[in-house]
Amino acid sequence: MGPAPLPDTGFLDEWAARLLQTADRPVIGVLLRGSHARQAATEHSDVDVDVLVADEEGPAAPAAGAAGPPVAAPSAAGPYAARRAYLAEFEGRLVHVSVAARDIRSWVHRLGQPADWAFGLPVTAPARLIWAAPEWRRRIDLPVLCQPADEPRLEELIATLGKVAGARLGGDPMGVRLAAGDLARLCPSVLRLVNPSVRVTSRRDALAAALDLPVAPPGYRDDMLLCLGLRPGATGEVAAAASRLVTGVVPLVRPYAEEIAAVAGTDLADALVDGRLDRYLAQLTRALDVARATSRDTSAVPAPRAGEWLTVPASDAPVTGAPASSGAAVAPGPARPSRLDPAIAARLRRTPDGLVAAVVRQHDSGEVLMVAWMDDEALHRTLTTGRATYWSRSRQEYWVKGATSGHHQYVRSVALDCDGDALLVSVDQVGPACHTGHRSCFFTELPVSFPEATS
Question: Whole-model pTM above 0.85?
Fold first, then answer.
């Protein structure tokens, strides 16, 4: 099972012609972006199109041999931007076509700004040129649209914790949740100082990368999910999570005071080093503690109803629903409910956590790509959906390879080894399999020495 079919060339060419005819300014180029450009679309995905038009002075012809788009700032008259939406017929179904028109100067200027959905991380999003004026083709035929990372916004992070404390003291649970969500979206921009560089391609990809930063405060992922409203929690729990995020981030970034000074000024950087910032955070924390002691608010984000989806850790209780800590010895088996064929399940020899190792290889070359873990349900989903699905031991949740990165694995076959404790998954790999960007996770060669042969 592959991704949804990309609207064919005829469909895209037809829309390019239509947009050229209806544009109120001379058109420079038409680009496809979004999930279709990433080759990660489903049958319900929008077709996102950027239409680049001349600015008010008209498109200056590029200089001979020039490469890359112009870098002039938007004109004094202000940037031009317009949005249109259409429902178009494609292969017997309706498709939502979303068109964003922008003058070339402001479009280039926008690419130089951080993306507001990317949690402060740099963006490298694939694009596809549908049409371009001949004199502009070389300058706008960009395989990816890049936007820079945001600055480390420590000052805004601290100010937002103040808003959390103020809303908590004022008995405003909705204000607490809104401020905590803003705070969580700021955290990754500050933690970028202490983490390896990572680039993202989509909003979902950005969320996954923001949650999985390797250098982060204790409990960071859980606190982020609480603050973002992606995990149920009472208002007091959300406020406490916001406090832990900020007080945990500050010690990590203390060695980077010089970088903070370049963004927020020398006083905040000095306060980061001399202890004033810690004292200020202690004031805010005490205010949150007082609010927690006096508040009667017990509201919580409701748990999802049947049929709704939410990314939360799956239960480790046995299939029977009995408590996992019952004290009785339990033979290794499926830890979570599963629809796996019982005949297949009976042949598995699992670890004590109910997992089986999955070795993943490229189906036609045999190249070993990665090793991951599956439980019974992950194997069931892999066998029945055609998409490689694994169990994350660190996040305690299922993940579909490529769902956030676009580096999909389409399953060709699955084999069980003779002992039943390992799986060989043959896939058609799209892009790199390794989160580092390498084709295979096995790219580090170790030295091997052999004893010299003796007669």
Answer: no
